[in-house]
Amino acid sequence: MIHLQINMARSAFELSIDIQLPRQGITAIFGPSGSGKTSLLRAVAGLDKNQKGRIQIGENIWQNTTQGICLPTWQRPLGYVFQESSLLPHLSVAENLSFGLKRALKSASSVQAQANKALQASIELLGIGSLLKRMPDELSGGERQRVAIARAIAMQPQLLLMDEPLASLDAARRQEILPWLARLRDDLKIPMLYVTHSAEEVARLADHLVVLDKGQVKAQGPVSTVLTQVVNPVVVGEDAGALIAGHIGAIDTQWHLSRVDFKGGAVWMRDAGLQVGKAVRIRILARDVSLATSEPTNTSIQNQLRGSIQSITPDAHPSQAMVVLKCGAEEVLARVTQRAVDELALKVGTPVWAQVKSVALVA
């Protein structure tokens, strides 16, 4: 596990957290601007002073104030990717990549070989082999960030820190780099702390989610669980919905559709060219789910899930309600009117059919 106990005074709040995180996959640090996300990363990196606490990665203690332990940043085996790529403008891509390895390359030959192997692996993993001779000003924003990420993982860090790495990119460049970040998550064994305020990035990339608000942990846990909570919801408005992991169960070549099977049912979506058996993540927004108390017939909505009502919570507008359904092992959200709740006599335990109008493939 990763143990982060951080206490730091900020100008507008005090960052005070004590959490244990999984030592695998991507943990997203999510919250509004000014909630303490970057301060958390800087404390982990040793760039800002953690006044009282503990930072431990597995068996490795980077800081323990009660024992007087506080490793400086350069002694913490981490990689840090900032919002801007921070490449040295006078060096080529290849020179930027090797710059951070100079200390390792002065060590024993076995360490040199291992460092060079890690560098080549990072180049291949992020698909930047064709960029090595270019200068930073000849790269797109997405290409610069891929180089910066490759430089960070080439150091074989115990922990990779990413501070809103897509924030400075336009929408097209963000879509360009998201698949590469997903590949990092799937191929690397390096745990990552990923700061973002984008619900899309959380849904596509995160395995675990920590939500900060004014320096405090508002919620944390597996991403699918935290995203669907309706008490103190993390995602509100049009983006509220469920995140479900499944796999491609069948393909309808005649109608260009793929079926996603999961523990609790199956839904059809537009065929994205994925093979049967491929693991996927789908997002079902609450606004795209309607409810019926009997099995619907003669309807154009072909995705229908059988479930039971777990909770009914007032939504942001008094005319609306958020209904949580249990469909097998999964939870699905439905936003309906309070009038519909009354007319259908919906209550906890009521068996219903969820009609899913749209399914989004996010990963």
Could you explain the architecture of this structure?
The chain has 363 residues and is α+β, with helices and mostly antiparallel strands. The protein folds into two domains: 2-233, P-loop containing nucleotide triphosphate hydrolases (Rossmann fold), CATH 3.40.50; 239-361, OB fold (Dihydrolipoamide Acetyltransferase, E2P) (Beta Barrel), CATH 2.40.50.100. Helices cover 23% and strands 36% of the residues. It contains nine helices and 21 strands. The strands form four sheets. It has a six-stranded mixed beta sheet, with helices on both faces. Strands 2-1-4-5-6 form a five-stranded antiparallel beta sheet, with helices on one face. Helix 2 runs parallel beside helix 5, helix 4 (109-125) runs antiparallel to helix 5 (141-153) and helix 5 (141-153) packs parallel to helix 6 (171-187). The two termini are 25 Å apart.
Strand order in space, largest sheet = 7-8-9-3-10-11
Major β-sheet, in short? 6 strands, mixed
CATH superfamily caption of the largest domain? P-loop containing nucleotide triphosphate hydrolases
- Over all CA atoms, what is the radius of gyration? 23 Å
CATH topology of the largest domain: Rossmann fold
Quickly give the structural class: alpha+beta
Number of helices: 9
The percentage helix is 10-25%
